[in-house]
From TrEMBL:
Chain ranges passing through the membrane: none
Compositionally biased spans, kind Basic and acidic residues: 97-107
Record-linked InterPro entries: AB_hydrolase_3, AB_hydrolase_fold, Carboxylest/Gibb_receptor
Any coiled-coil regions, as ranges: none
Family: Belongs to the 'GDXG' lipolytic enzyme family.
Disordered: region residues: 26-50, 76-140
Highest taxon in the source lineage: Eukaryota
One Pfam family it belongs to: Abhydrolase_3
Every Alpha/beta hydrolase fold-3 domain range: 168-423
The name this protein goes by in its record: Carboxylesterase 11
Molecular-function annotations in GO: hydrolase activity
Amino acid sequence: MPSVAVKLYSVFFKFLLKHRLQNRIQNPSADDPFGVTSRPEESVAAPNPSFADGVATKDIHIDPFTSLSIRIFLPDSALHPPDPDSKPPRPRPVPARRPDPADAPDHHLRRSSLGGAAHFNHAGSEGSPPESRRNSYGCGADSDGVGGVYRGYAPSQSGGGTRKLPVMLQFHGGGWVSGSNDSVANDYFCRRIAKLCDVVVVAVGYRLAPENRYPAAFEDGLKVLNWLGKQANLAECSKSMGSVRSSAEFKKGDAQRHIVDTFGASMVEPWLASHGDPSRCVLLGVSCGANIADYVARKAVEAGKRLEPVKVVAQVLMYPFFIGSTPTHSEIKLANSYFYDKAMCILAWKLFLSEEEFSLDHPAANPLVPGRGPPLKLMPPTLTVVAEHDWMRDRAIAYSEELRKVNVDAPVLEYKDAVHEFATLDMLLKTPQAQACAEDIAIWVKKYISLRGHEFSY
């Protein structure tokens, strides 16, 4: 059984959540096309591009018409070349750096947003003086730009000695109406996943209900996947332009070259261009975020080669927010379970689905309704995480069973004495069970993102 502290916190959590949901139902917000991605009561973590705790983060607003944004989590493992074989890792020599005329004995220390002073070279390692580089807006990192002096990591022009890592799109939970991609809890979880899985995590700040009802959150998830593809294509286009600058066909004058340079610098996200491999893309969804991940996976299957070079190779559904009109055994037995009971979750669905569309068998809510395309046999490998004391567990297991029937790799990890969001909720994030869950996810995910084949097995 969960501990006494978990039980007490659950009572407090449910009281606050019920109050907020009822307030939003009684005082509905006007439709807002731009939308919100975080609530005022949410504790948020500021982005830190200086590899604090081994992971650098950056926020990007990617849609001019909505509030859709992302937070990129870049592990420092991307700054080192990969080992050529599977032998035990050896100490890596620090790559030689080109001399910079700006280097001087009295160079100043760069201060991270946490207050610690550190030097960063082009690979982001400490102990070397800074060199000139570009940030994502094309201005020099050591020069004052629109937002002042850029103190974070920016890839070197050469990009030598770095690694291409798989990209993981992460969708946070919160019952459609709360949570955010930059919350303290989500920031901690994504940092953990980025390091354990050795991936670039892109946490999606999708629009929340009731300001933006279905299908806004689902469309935002798909927009980010398409944006990832555009980034990959822009990066390739930028490389091609750079390789022919000295050729006769491209000698059209300095003015034209300046336009090309400016366009490339402003449109290409350097962290993804230097370190992201979209051909190894994994989707990870938490609670209602798992519903979004499953939707995005289905749309990726339908898009097929039109999505190239992005390829979704696997997805992870953590205690998905599934429901249906015909109750399962767990929905009857555990209807009043910890943190998120069934009655409150139905309120959340009423805020997410419009009154005309509301149904517990809506395709967004019930993965087992007939006619929900594409055919399950085309779905990517799917890992499902469930908790023993979660009323939603049986339907998630049933969905996984349907995938296995058509030969999709779809294991289920069930955690004993666990509650809904046991690995992502703020007060439970540092428990041994939450750490073990993240490690288990990493073991399974690496089967599908490893460049050396399936040397990992479960």
